[in-house]
Amino acid sequence: MSQALFRKLLGALPVAAALACASAQAEPTVVAPVKGYTFAGDKLVSFEALAFDKGRVLGVGEAATLAKQYPDARKIDGQGRALLPGLIDAHGHVFRVGFRQSEVVVTDTRTLAEAQAKIKAYGQANPARQWIMGSGWNQVLWKLDRFPTAAELDTAIADRPVTLRRVDAHAIWANTKALQLAGITRDTPDPVGGRIERDAKGEPTGILIDKAQLLLTKVMPPYTDAERRLALDSALRHFASLGLTGVGDAGTGADEVRIYREFADAGKLSSRVYAMINDVGDDYKKLSTQGPLKGYADDRFSLAAVKLFADGALGSRGAALLEPYSDDHNNKSLLFMDDAAMRAKVRTALKAGYQVNVHAIGDAANRQILDAFEAAYKEDASGMARRNRVEHAQVVSLQDIPRFKTLGLIASMQPTHATSDMNMAEDRVGKERIKGAYAWQTFLKQGTVIAGGSDFPVESANPFFGLHAAVTRTDHQGKPIAGWHPEEAMTLPQALRAFTLDAAYAEHQEKTTGSLEPGKWADFIIVDQDPFTAAPGDIWKTKVLGTWLAGEQVYAAPAAR
């Protein structure tokens, strides 16, 4: 597309930007002509124009009809571009997206040597940082066939503590200085739900798996409120640029909730946030005194769910399996807690009125959660109405998949996990167990709701990457050609619904968001290509031209500015 055409296309977008000065429109606004798509009940419908007023949808339909119905409406020229409901990522980690802007990130490295060089350069460029923190390493991509070591991190930086979280955040790679400050030695026992990797002599290697990470994080410097504000502001700007008008924050504490409410009160939440309290510990006790918080600040912020963890991740072999790993016959990993403890936590949260969302990757973890919910519903059947969720539901025994439907559970799944994990997932679980892994179509066919997400920053927050992965099950180079286990691919309407109406349903917000039906918030995006006419392999290339939340423009592509 030429730059001139691009400017012409977006020439009308500043009109909407001018409207952002007011919290609500004084008169209706009509966006037309567009190639619009939305869900009306269970049906995907198309339209030529969208009308909204005071932040809420009046209706969609033919351009001429709406023009006649609202003759004095303000107009936004859509130039015939595709218009979609604002996209919703049901599972991510908001503040971590922002914190990454000031830390060392090695996601793009393809060898250990590249990562070491990048970490060293970061240390030299940031001499005032007393503790170097970062993330993004993946030993599978480095083709190490093992974890990296503290000694290898020492070659980059040895005089200051360094800690980098694995790409899935379920392991930390620490240098010798960090291990010393944490007091981690050969005599330090593995905590429940965690593991200290050790060499043949029993010495810690520098890798801490799952709950063993707490041995380090308790001595790492905490973030300040100023850093949290910067992180949230950065994350929100990023989400708006990607067309995300809603995000689920899968695990927040009192410090983060305080900043969320501050932003909400100031009208600065440019994406709706559905936050989940991390576990039922001290923060839960502080935050749950008045019960679930729903629809705060015109539905900009909710704190109505509790996030629990059953196990770790597949890539670090921390996912709890019923039988040993296919590529590690002496290991099936560990559940984070025993069945009694998990059931007690589920009961605690349900009794207080919260939705319960549990991280479960391996088939043993998924079974534990299914059993916990089943036990809870036998005690109090009203708990099923909370629309409780299994976060990831990544590797599930085939005999357990039907139980999701029986128990009314939502499968909160992240399509890009499949395309990122396809380089090692079958090695980890083998040809039989893979049949119940990333099994989107199997879940959908039995009537289980799938809430789409990305697990950002583990994966990119770009929802069009998720839509592409869901439909093609390939990487961005189109490999494998037929798709990885293509029988489990979604149709595009199914995928779009997972990232709109069903994600809203998973947050008890389907009556206010998720589609462009009358009375709902006017959350919508205009994009540079129609995903329904584009080649499936090109869906990930879709660019957002403008994002509106409650009828106010919160993002315009750079050319429009």
**N-C termini distance:** 18 Å
The chain-level structural class is: alpha/beta
- Average residue pLDDT: 93
Query: Which sheet architecture does the biggest sheet show?
Result: 8 strands, mixed
The count of helical stretches stands at: 21
- CA-based gyration radius: 24 Å
Poorly predicted parts:
1-25
The shape is globular
Strand content: 15-25%
Helical fraction: 25-40%
Number of strands: 23
General description of the model:
By secondary structure, this protein is α/β, with parallel strands linked by helices. The chain has 21 helices and 23 strands. The strands form 3 sheets. Strands 1, 2, 3, 4, 5, 21, 22 and 23 form an 8-stranded mixed β-sheet that branches. The protein has an 8-stranded parallel β-sheet with strand order 6-13-14-16-17-18-19-20. Helix 13 crosses helix 14. The longest helix is centred in the middle third of the chain and has 17 residues, at 225-241. The chain is globular and about 80 Å long.
